[in-house]
Amino acid sequence: MRTWVSTAAILAAALVPGVAHAAEAAGEQGRGSWLALLYYVANFLIFAWVLYRYAGPMVRSFFGERAGSIRATRERAETLASEAEARASQAAERLARLADEKAKLGADLGAESALEATRIREASRTAATRVLRDAELEAAALGEAAQRRLRGALAAAAAGLARELLAQHFQRADQQRMVEEFAARLADEGIDDEP
Amino acid sequence: MMSLKAARRYARALIGLSRESAQLERWGAELERLARAAADPEVATLLASPTLTPQARVQTIDHIAERLAVGFPVRSFVAVVTRHGRVAELEAISQAYQHMLDEHLGRTRATLTFAREPDDAQVKMLVERLAAIAGKTIIPIIKVDAALLGGVTTELEGRIYDGSLSTQLAEAEKRLCG
After folding, report:
1. Beta carbon pairs, A and B, within 8 Å
2. How far apart are CA B92 and CA B125, in angstroms?
3. pLDDT tens digit string along A2-49?
4. Can you tell me whether residue B71 is helix, strand or coil?
5. Which ipTM value was assigned to this complex?
6. B114 touches chain A (CB under 8 A)
7. Which of A58, A78, B114, B129 would disulfide-bridge A186, Cβ 3.0–4.6 Å?
8. A72 CB near a chain B CB, below 8 Å?
């Protein structure tokens, strides 16, 4: 049946144009032709049917695929938009947390700085005390050494002077007296040594 | 270097030859004279020369002893010492002999160092005191040292008794130094 209809349509399309041209030619001489109108209508219907028969599925398929693609794109865009929104909210939360963290870090740093400053002050005070004590000890030692040197120099000078005086004024009588005193000491020694 | 032990052994051998103190004293003096002569650098070099035969060495020392009027016993003793190759140690033997003789005769030597030349009375006084301390007869060895400034020091049996001005001054200086 479909083959028959197609064959008839093709034959009509092949034969009718001659009749239509003839009618049109007759009409050009002063009056319209119903046959020509019929021909145009039939021609149009055949064209529309052919178009519908062969191009319709491709057009439907094209627009169907296109609609699917647009839907997929829209869904992806929606997904991306929701992801972006989620990330934006996460970023906002992180920013909020960062501000808290910054405040906490600032507080910690402040506390640590205060502690460090206290420790440095304490160390400085200890060092200063130690330096002062060392300086006092060193000064005392230096003073003592100077006194010792001075005493030594004075003693050496006094002894030197005494030697000079003795060399000048020591007499035989002095020597005699010293020998006698020494003999007396020896006598005491002899008594001490006796059992 | 001869050991003190060997020198004392030779000295004891010589002391053992007589019981008479005067003779021991004389031998000590002779041995000291001979030891001093043998210690002279020229004589010591000659006696130590390897070109000298042992016999010639004995003859040489005997000749020196004869010249120093050393008696026969000491000359014989020194000849023995020389034959034993100990001629260079005569001084040590002499000192050991003197020490042993002092012990044998109950006496000891004391060194008295004066700042000025002492008179006999001063020496006698100190010797008496030292004899009282040692309980022995004292043979004084007198020295003079001006560096003492004044006074006297003595050394008796290893002990020193100091009565010098220089020591008193040094002690005073030390006390002043603190």
Report:
1. 82
2. 32
3. 667 666 666 666 666 666 666 666 555 555 678 888 888 988 999 999
4. coil
5. 0.71
6. yes
7. B129
8. no
